[in-house]
Design a protein that fits this description.
Number of strands: 0
Number of helices: 10
Number of domains: 2
Strand content: under 5%
Distance between the termini: 22 Å
Largest sheet: none
Structural class: mainly alpha
Order of helices and strands: HHHHHHHHHH
Shape: elongated
Oligomer: single chain
Length: 297
């Protein structure tokens, strides 16, 4: 047997082990993983299951009716399926069978630990910022999301089929981003209103101070004090409403965007985490299916 599959599995195993280690023991990575877990939403579960079913249909159809799509460099080296699952034929000897079975169990388990972190990394690469792109470019990124998996060794038919979850995850990202951005827009409008009110309050305080200085100077305190209270207490009720409403309306329509760009970046992170949660769940379903197939064989 060629040594190349063993070398590939060693490299993949090292990469998965490093990712799993960071997931468990590196605080920053662990924090990102927890954010993805918190972003899980049950309402997206049916769509994720439908995407998995769609992948199965496309894989079956292409494999059956377009035979050349069965090709993949991992298969050419003697491997089977996806290298991250560690499925390889090491011969019919007892040692070969035992090692093959061990690899087929250990690799998916390690990948399962790293699944959330890896899913988030892919969402950052292929989905983050999609809200700024046209539908055509988003579809192109979903196709590229599938095709790029060819480099990890999966067959061409599987690469084509991954366009289906790519499109679904793009939708999940958009929904997660829109929900977070809508909340931030509301907060931006409210903050714009508060800024106007506070600025007007400071202006009125200055006016009151000037009136009090004049009252002391001209010895007409009672009259000016009454006038001062009128400006401070009654004036805002008549004069500030329109200005505040205009600022709030402008803030709601994006004038406040530059002041809240960090918050909108957080909206992108919310979209990424929402999509990554479904992506990780999809990967975990695949791992379960592979493990069942390995145990059954």
């Amino acid at each position: 047997m060629s040594p190349f599959p063993i070398v590939v599995l060693a490299l993949v195993g090292c990469a998965l082990s490093v990712s799993a280690y960071k997931t468990l023991f590196v605080a920053s990575d662990r924090g990102q993983v927890m954010a993805v877990i918190r972003a899980w939403r049950w309402r997206y579960l049916p769509g994720t299951l439908a995407a998995l079913f769609g992948v199965g249909l496309v894989c079956g159809g292409l494999s059956e009716y377009v035979p050349w799509t069965n090709w993949g460099w991992w298969h050419l080296l003697g491997g089977m399926g996806n290298p991250v699952f560690g499925v390889i034929d090491l011969g019919s000897s007892p040692a070969g069978l035992a090692i093959s079975a061990a690899l087929a169990v250990v690799f998916p388990l390690v990948f399962g630990v790293a699944a959330i972190r890896e899913a988030r990394a892919e969402e950052v690469s292929f989905r983050k910022g999609n809200q700024k792109k046209s539908v055509r470019r988003r579809v192109a990124r979903a196709i590229w999301f599938g095709l790029v998996h060819f480099f990890i060794g999966i067959p061409i038919y599987a690469c084509c089929a991954l366009t289906v979850p790519g499109l679904w995850l793009d939708y999940v990202y958009q929904r997660g981003y829109e929900r977070a951005a809508a909340k931030i827009s509301q907060e931006a409008a409210q903050a714009g209103l508060l800024r106007v009110l506070r600025a007007r309050e400071r202006e009125l305080q200055v006016q009151q101070h000037e009136l009090e200085v004049q009252a002391e100077k001209y010895k007409r305190w009672p009259h000016l004090a009454s006038y001062s209270r009128h400006i401070v207490m009654d004036g805002p009720l008549r004069t500030m409403g329109g200005t505040a409403e205009e600022i709030a309306d402008e803030a709601a329509h994006g004038v406040e965007y530059s002041r809240f760009r960090e918050e909108y970046a957080q909206a992108e992170e919310a979209g990424v985490n929402t999509a990554a949660a479904q992506h990780a769940f999809y990967n975990l379903l695949i791992i379960v299916i592979v493990e069942i197939a390995v145990l059954a064989s």
